[in-house]
Amino acid sequence: MNDPQDGNPTDSTEPPEEGGRRGRGARPGGRDARRALRSGGGNKQRRYLDRKIPVFEILSEESLEIIEHNADVILEEIGIEFREDEEALGILKDAGCDVQGERVRFPKGFCRKVIQDNAPRTFTQHARNPERSVQIGGGATVFAPVYGPPFVHDLDGERRYATIADFENLVKLAYMSPNLHHSGGTVCEPVDIPVNKRHLDMVYSHIRYSDKPFMGSVTAPERAEDSINMAKIVFGADFVDNNTVMINLINANSPMTFDGTMLGALKTYARGNQACIVTPFILSGAMAPCTPAGVMAQTLAEGMAGITFAQLVHPGAPCIFGSFASSISMQSGAPTFGTPEPAMVLYAMAALVRRLGVPFRSGGGLCGSKVPDAQAAYEAAATLQPTVLAGVNFVLHSAGWLEGGLVSSFEKLLMDADQLGMLQVMAEGPDMSENGQAMDAIREVGPGQHFLGCAHTQANFESAFYRSNIADNNSYEQWLSEGSTDARGRANKMARKMLAEYVAPELDPAIDEALRDYIAKTKESMPDAFT
Amino acid sequence: MNDPQDGNPTDSTEPPEEGGRRGRGARPGGRDARRALRSGGGNKQRRYLDRKIPVFEILSEESLEIIEHNADVILEEIGIEFREDEEALGILKDAGCDVQGERVRFPKGFCRKVIQDNAPRTFTQHARNPERSVQIGGGATVFAPVYGPPFVHDLDGERRYATIADFENLVKLAYMSPNLHHSGGTVCEPVDIPVNKRHLDMVYSHIRYSDKPFMGSVTAPERAEDSINMAKIVFGADFVDNNTVMINLINANSPMTFDGTMLGALKTYARGNQACIVTPFILSGAMAPCTPAGVMAQTLAEGMAGITFAQLVHPGAPCIFGSFASSISMQSGAPTFGTPEPAMVLYAMAALVRRLGVPFRSGGGLCGSKVPDAQAAYEAAATLQPTVLAGVNFVLHSAGWLEGGLVSSFEKLLMDADQLGMLQVMAEGPDMSENGQAMDAIREVGPGQHFLGCAHTQANFESAFYRSNIADNNSYEQWLSEGSTDARGRANKMARKMLAEYVAPELDPAIDEALRDYIAKTKESMPDAFT
């Protein structure tokens, strides 16, 4: 189902094929219910972004070649450490790498060749609702919500540790947001559940409260196994063996290190044909040099090493090249967001990974602000705009990220999602059809008149302009009379309304019961752990 | 001093030449004082943006040609009205245009040829401080503050009619903001001064409280004359006759109409060799079709007609092609900002005007929000980012715009200006020098270590990252202990501090006295008018 580059490359913009989901016939009212959802649900889902506009290139050909050369030098001369994993070192040694202790040096050109010979350029991640399946790679961009925060900013304005109830609510909001294509993974850390069991509740929430594609657990190999087993209950074992139904976040320990935990999860998912995002996570100046060109070379080397390893473990395993790069404050050492240097890295990495030929993950609505204020919005926009213009394929953190990733914000999730909708329209580019050119309207109206009543405006007005559901464009007087609410207040109100109106997507009760059984048995099999 | 395309085209990125300002020797302490200002002023001014990164092109060559063809059809077949100005009609008729009543149709290819044969590709706008002179056109981008609002959002949080005291304070803040290159024009409407006299106080404020380049009055030909006369007192008559010291905003009455007031100001400035921004001001769906491609063709036709007229009035007159395009809300008819459709128009117009070969004005920190909240920031960013990526040359409204242009905000001026600084760094592109590549640092540090203490980080840390003066990146606990201030609150505090610390740039007392005399005499010569 995946498309190795030398086999059957498809940069197709066709929707991913349907089928393969177990129990489709068995689910009561499947097709009709889906139709009802489409028409009656009130939230017209957007299909994943399929760009019609060019990408923005920040580096010249010559500069791109310099970075590629530097990455090759890192791989060949400095090397990458693969820690706490003897099997990994054996695999790399057998493939011809120079392994000294845990340090692995790659022969010149080795990584690029392994990746280009094996890794799919694009692949489909299947959702349990086939209409929500997404293309990863090519001209597609898929928006997924924030990942990882231990805290939430709740709808009462409190900042506190996250719970599984928050997790479920964030999944519900992402499900209802037409501009989010993906349910994401750890939308917040449900710290009220033992650390060794919470992955079960998280995966279950994505399956139960959404029908969008989702992510699996990576915090231990056995948790990755659980994620795959639960997916098999939903999609069927054969389907999961042969198709990608989960995307999983494998961070490098930059600089130039992968640890045993992440390597274990990577091996499990790669062997199971599930997708891995191999992401150098870099606070520039700490985990990499403080100059963008240095970050680029190191990121390229680390990502290539990780994806090469995945291809050696399981040739053809779907991989996404990830890049997370922020600056740090020289006063406090705190990460900063929305500044120009990481945006440069983003644009450059998108181009470098395009040349490498695998899907690319980066960007998002990143910010350092404590509240969803102007700082949060400027900073989020300063990453979201480059995310789309650079042609990022998979966007984690595209909505809901606050306070440097420590906090998931319900309000910001909806505010960001509104921006994602605008960027998706932007990526469609202007309509250059005769109707779009509107010369008849210009002829009809003529100098000094207005276009409000002309036939062209009447015919096109409904769909002419993106309509924000957060922005207030009423008169000052009306805004005043309605309580002088700011964007945050309006998002708060909208989130409350959405959660009140939420209706779960249908799920075969037999599947639901099987999932609950699996979770109960797995939880019973071990004592709670909180660290 | 201007550069006609067929004469001495300079897309040079060299700083504009110094000299020509009257009384330079006479001004006490000129050079030394300037040096002191540079070193001791605490606000290190940035020179106008001089882009090193490519522009983003949204339209294909084929699409650009379609729009150009459609604009030609509008100019040739539909025509443009030049109203309430017999002289203008005569000039156009004499040049070979088809004039029927006030409707003017241009022969095929006429406008493009007149513009390309006469209008400068780039020119210098001189400031009274030669270090603040700016290049208009080519790879340069010049940021000027908001223009036109009758209201201000003051530092006590009140929204009220603007006064000349507000005007002065906005000029002071723009003067002190290192990322604003220009003092602008009507930074707010000082409605406490009679409408027929306030232009005198506005021009005086720009000269007295700033030394950055500024704009003149366009609301009547005699006010344009006053603006030029005051500039002559500062720069010397000879210098003003032969150099551009003012930029002036001439809006078309879209669709396809110029009125007598604007034509009068345009003629005055063009004959005086002062620059005109000819700007079709379009709320899409009202003054133009509701589709971006329709807005593009109409904008191109209107701008070409206006600049052609300026070149017929005074061949070689410096002109800037302007485009202001927003959408409207279909519920209320109110203009909306930060949506994707105007951004598409912006990108396309920048490319079309580059092909035409004159400087381009568009963009800014536009928003519809009533307060400097997340809506304001998202919307401002959604125009500011395209402004810089598209390669806009002159940016009005780049800081301080609120509530659809009805309100000038002190807080948002500083918040936007911070974003302008980031965009300016972005436009520098990544440093690809050996130091930027940082391979020695990567070799030195190696896998699993950190870069904080390495020699490269020590050497580069100070200048490595853009430092926002608005963003708070401290820990949550510290932020809490400091009063939980949001971005707006911090901008408010900063504005108060800046105004308290403001020191006026030096101005020869003789010049100051001459300006005051001119203003007093002109004011005495006519009764107050308030409409």
Question: How is this structure best described in words?
Answer:
Two copies of one chain form a homodimer. In chain A, helix 4 crosses helix 10, helix 10 (about 290-315) packs parallel to helix 11 (about 340-355) and helix 12 (about 375-390) runs parallel beside helix 13. Chain A is globular, with a radius of gyration of 23 Å. With about 525 residues, chain A is α/β, with parallel strands linked by helices. The first copy, chain A, has helices at about 30-40, 60-80, 85-95, 110-120, 165-175, 200-210, 220-235, 235-240, 260-270, 290-315, 340-355, 375-390, 410-430, 435, 440-445, 455-465, 475-480, 485-500, 510-525, and strands spanning about 5, 50, 80, 100, 105, 120-125, 135, 140-145, 150-155, 160, 215, 245-250, 255-260, 275-285, 320, 325-330, 335, 360, 395, 400, 405-410. In chain A, strands 11, 12, 14, 15, 16, 17 and 18 form a seven-stranded mixed sheet that branches. Chain A has a four-stranded mixed sheet with strand order 4-5-3-13. Chain A is built from 19 helices and 21 strands. The model of chain A is unreliable at about 1-40 (pLDDT under 50).
Largest interface: A-B, 123 and 124 residues
- Beta-strand share of residues of chain A: 5-15%
Oligomeric state of the chains present here: homodimer
Classify the secondary structure makeup of chain A into a structural class.
alpha/beta
